What does this fold into?
Amino acid sequence: MIAITIGGIAAATASTVLLARWMPLWAAALVAAVLIGSVVAAIIWRALVPMRALFRALAGTVASYRDGDFSFGITWDKASDLIELVDAHNALGNALREQRLALVQRELLLDTMVQNTPVAMVLVDASRRIVLGNLAARRMLGEGRRLEGRAFEDVLAKADTALQEAFERGGDGMFTVGSDDDEDIYHLSRRGFRLNGRPHELVLLRQLTAELRRQEVQTWKKVIRVISHELNNSLAPIASLAHSGAELLRRGQHERLPAALATIEDRARHLEGFIRDYARFAKLPAPRSTPVEWSQFLAQLRSQVEFVPDVQPEDGIGRFDVAQMEQALLNLLKNAHESGTAADEVRASVRRTPEGWRIDVLDRGSGMNDAVLANALLPFYSTKRHGTGLGLALAREIAEAHGGRIALLNREGGGLCVSMVLPV
It folds into this structure.
């Protein structure tokens, strides 16, 4: 480039010398300046042409990146400082290309999982149009056809009546589709969230028939074992004592008959109470809630079992079924006494919370280990030798029938807290 410059300048100088012979000095100088400027401009233009091509290539690849196309690269074999810019640009393109490939693979994996899950999934946008419906949703709601773009209410209007009623109730819930001989049980779950700044709703429909059938069979087996155990424990001594009573009558030993008859009566009444508890659990009616003053309710409860009441505020009024709540708290308080806690350490605390009313039954027994805590609220689960496993389960059933919940936790310093939360 330097040689070209020197040659060009030399030629311009020679031309200037020739012109100076027949032109005035000022004119010759002007011509020389024009010639030299033209040569320098041509040299600069020639040097900038490759760089202009490079800049156009850079602008083109940036536009491709903006459009999501990362397949372009730039080749630059000139020895200059621009090679670092080209290398950095190509490295950026490679990184974006690898990230795009990884993203596509993740999206493909996620779509495969969503489409093949047995749970029917429907995503609805703010205009109540279906954005996504997987294969299970198509089979259940669209007769196998695509759901995307269709109005969700139109699709729901053609669905089973039980599903429509489940949506009308609002929130999560279970419903049954089909007849008694051929019915399927489903769980409806609805979750709202914002996607790209707009509200969306995700609807999940999970079939529970097979799982519930297995649990039902296991539950019936357990019920049969428990009932058989209790019946044998009562009927065996009754039969034995009846035989012994007959022998005592035959021998004329009447003085020993009252003891045998008393034992028979005791076992018969135990069996009667056992069956009554099962019937109460199985036939729990819907609660008839009425306004009740907590202080008065606990005072009435203390006439049946001893405990220390604590109500805050003292004039607080709850709304519940008196008979059912009395049964639930009696079970909890009797359990507290059976834990070995002194009567003056068994407490029933009632507190007003933002959620509603919280009732805590507290004792100072040995508490529960993790395995017992996890299963204590299940029907027929008991760690007591002669327990039926229905006391806590019945309390849970009553709490949930009132729209509340129940939980168990160990207390610091020993003991158990059974906490029941009821809505206002």
Remarks:
- The mean pLDDT is 79.
- The chain has four domains: 2-102, 117-207, 223-282, 290-422.
- The domain at 290-422 is CATH 3.30.565.10 (Heat Shock Protein 90).
- The chain has twelve helices and twelve strands.
